[in-house]
Amino acid sequence: MNTKLTLNLNKEIIQGAKDYAKEHNISLSFLVENYLQKIISDYKIEAASKGSIVNELSGIIKLDLDANHRDDHIDYLTEKYK
Using CA atoms, how far apart are residues 63 and 72, in angstroms rounded to an integer? Predict the structure, then answer.
């Protein structure tokens, strides 16, 4: 069931959104509805994973992207079990 919604937005934002919708051959209503659906979907996923230990620990270690971690690990194990 569709319901009418009235929004007050900056005139330039509205025009930009209309131009985008026209260029992509979609309605402004479709554009807004899908954007809101994406926000809701992301929020539900975030809320479901909140408190996860993996989520809490993600990003706390910064690795050197140029480093060869496999060789470093082999060197560590070689030294450990000499």
Answer: 12
> At 19, phi and psi to the nearest 5?
-60, -45
**Sequential DSSP letters for 36-64:** HHHHHHHHHHHHHHTT-HHHHHTTSSPPP
- Angle of helix 28-49 versus helix 11-23 axis, rounded to 10: 100
| Cα separation, 53 vs 51, whole angstroms | 6
- Hey, is 5 helix, strand or coil? coil
**pLDDT of 53-82, one tens digit each?**
777 777 788 877 777 878 888 998 999 888
